[in-house]
Amino acid sequence: MKTTLRTDITVKDICDGFVYNQLEGKGLFGLSGKLTIQPEYQRNYIYADGKRDVAVIDSMLKDYPLGLIYFVKITNEKFEVLDGQQRITSFGRFVTNKFAVKVDGMEQYFESLAPELQAKILNTELTIYECEGEEPEIKSWFKTINIAGVPLTNQELNNAIYSGPFVTLGKEEFSNSQNANIQKWSAYVSGSANRQEFLECAIDWVSKGKIEDYMALHRKDDNIKELKTYFTSVIDWVSTVFADIESEMKGLEWGRLYETYKKQPYSPQKVSQQVKELYADPYIKSRKGVFEYILGGSTDTKLLEVRVFDEATKKSVYGKQKTEAEKKSISNCPLCAVGNNTNKTKIWSLAEMDADHVSAWSKGGATDIKNCEMLCKTHNRAKGNK
Ligand SMILES: [Zn+2]
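A: This is the predicted complex of the input protein with zinc ion.
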């Protein structure tokens, strides 16, 4: 890879012909059309938060360095930004009056700035490395330099590595925050479209977790039909089975649940009632587990993390059981006491026992001292598995 240091290019040069696409949330071109600011392997613009974009302008006003910027030289007349697109998009948007910064306590757009401050920004000279080389070499280097700064998410990296028509189409559908479906999807998918987490989720579901294999296989595809259809099927299925949207639904493994339970019939009305009851149960610690619990036929109580007895309760029940057992010369585990082996009279230590619900939680038993009994670990496990 050949690199050339350039210090003659100014903010004004870059902003000549600057285009910002509001819809896609990216800076597109600059440098009189010679510079592509966001090639497809780059992440979306994420500095538009009133902090990081403002910090770029503040730096210029205070003569702080903006840091190194890297261009890839495609031909003598064509460049792509390899590193620095967030900074470039920030000053490009500022110079085109897309946001304001505070100067002496006053919110100022570029057009309202004093002429000497405007000039100061436009005449800022950038430190730019122009690089020439083969694509794989440049991409592997891109991976290396991006370790600094805001780290790339996994999917942003994958988009860079497997860039091509499939990624471009995938991003158009799943990474576009203007897509009206994003709001509906965000009830079930966590993260942000901008950081590629919806795209990641969609590929994760259709590939059953093999994201990179899927991206490599479909890299040159000129459509994303399968990806889109599968994602829509999962979302439609969840939103049909569970009529009410709960915040704990976000980010669950809906792809896996869809594969496991899609053939089962459910009555949305009954399911809705079940969700309400489980949500109202104070003994359930994991509301996230409620959905899979219902889908699986309300049997796997482990998913709900039903509240366990606290140490004070266990100690108190243990003490009571032990005193009574010693009086009768039987084991302090009620199940050992009625058995026929050597444990019939064994007094277990507290550490050798576990608390059990006399009347099971699933049958309405409460997690309070009246419903607690201590069993030896073997008997507790045997009972728990029933
Ligand atoms: Zn026992």
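The first helix runs from residue 11 to 15. The mean pLDDT is 89.
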